[in-house]
């Protein structure tokens, strides 16, 4: 999820508790703290791509940081230590859980294990989730509205919404498997869509990408890619920092090679985001006539 939605979620979660001094601020800070890894953007977008949702979203940080936030809350606001710790763990944990529902990988077990995890249920920005939270916060401004009840109903809606998408995804994947005989299947959510999903399949070195629609029971294969590392520039590009960071993030990477005016341009695509128009989630390297890398480039 995006930071704005996380922040709003923290405000909503604070409504579950009595209005005590520091409750709102601690809930807000705890809901945003996992994203302190945004500081990695100072070292480049490719570095951010590698380290975002890494150690600050990992099991060690989940155990330690909310505890520290609770202690700070107790020191600043002189409130109950157990209350601030419980509030911090709730808001921090909900942040990580919300991130896990998206397709952007989360290194949940870092630094013990850097494997990526994602449920691929909702897009990174989901208007239904954000909209529901904003609606509840607006309603909570009215004195006639029970803030706690409104927030509980919103949480119930969000759980039902995500569970519903999980159920739909399972049905869509089952249908896709009856239409395409492949070895690996991955489904990714499309923005503001329920029945249509983006798929990436792989059998050997062949990728297929396209759309699957459960409502109309159609599968549209948009492109077929044959991955190869026989081209020297592809192998060479994998030794460069930008490409290493990109490949650390990508789950379905594909390299496209183009020769232009004696130069070779290698463009790495993350096929799981192939439904987004234009050049997004790509890493590009330009080699000169002698096969030396002269330019590295990354774009979200």
Mean pLDDT, to the nearest integer, reads 93
Number of helices: 9
Q: How many domains make up the 3D coordinates?
A: 3
Based on DSSP secondary structure assignment, what is the total number of beta strands? 8
Shape: globular
Order of helices and strands: HHHHHHHEEEEHHEEEE
Radius of gyration: 22 Å
Give me the side-by-side strand order of the main sheet.
1-2-3-4
Strand content: 15-25%
Percent of residues in helices comes to 40-55%
Q: Major sheet, described briefly?
A: 4 strands, antiparallel
Task: Please describe what this structure looks like.
By secondary structure, this protein is α+β, with helices and mostly antiparallel strands. It folds into three domains: 3-125, no CATH class; 169-225; 228-299, no CATH class. Helices cover 43% and strands 20% of the residues. It contains nine helices and eight strands. It has a four-stranded antiparallel β-sheet, with helices on one face. Strands 5-6-7-8 form a four-stranded antiparallel β-sheet. α2 (23-32) runs parallel beside α5. It starts with a helix and ends with a strand. The relative contact order is 0.10. The mean pLDDT is 93.
């Amino acid at each position: 999820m995006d930071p704005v939605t996380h922040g709003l979620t923290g405000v909503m979660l604070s409504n579950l508790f009595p209005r005590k001094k520091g409750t709102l601020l601690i809930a807000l800070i705890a809901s945003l703290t996992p994203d302190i890894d945004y500081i990695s953007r100072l070292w480049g977008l490719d570095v951010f791509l590698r380290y975002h949702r890494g150690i600050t979203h990992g099991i060690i940080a989940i155990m330690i940081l909310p505890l520290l936030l609770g202690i700070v809350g107790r020191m600043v606001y002189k409130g109950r230590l157990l209350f601030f710790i419980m509030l911090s763990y709730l808001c921090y944990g909900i942040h990580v859980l919300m991130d896990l529902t998206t397709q952007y990988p989360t290194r949940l077990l870092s630094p013990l294990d850097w494997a990526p995890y994602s449920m691929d249920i909702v897009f990174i920005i989901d208007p239904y989730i954000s909209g529901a939270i904003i609606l509840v916060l607006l309603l909570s401004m009215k004195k006639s509205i029970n803030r706690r009840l409104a927030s509980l109903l919103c949480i119930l809606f969000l759980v039902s919404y995500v569970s519903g998408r999980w159920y739909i995804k399972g049905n869509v994947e089952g249908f896709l498997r009856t239409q395409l005989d492949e070895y690996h299947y991955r489904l990714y959510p499309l923005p503001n869509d329920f029945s249509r999903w983006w798929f990436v399949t792989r059998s050997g070195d062949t990728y297929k990408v396209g759309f699957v629609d459960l409502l109309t029971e159609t599968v549209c294969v948009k492109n077929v890619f044959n991955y190869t590392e026989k081209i020297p520039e592809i192998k060479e590009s994998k030794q460069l920092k930008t490409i290493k960071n990109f490949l650390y993030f990508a789950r379905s990477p594909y390299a496209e090679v183009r020769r232009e005016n004696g130069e070779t341009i290698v463009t790495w695509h993350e096929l799981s985001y192939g439904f987004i128009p234009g050049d997004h989630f790509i890493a590009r390297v330009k080699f000169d006539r002698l096969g030396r890398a002269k330019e590295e480039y990354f774009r979200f």
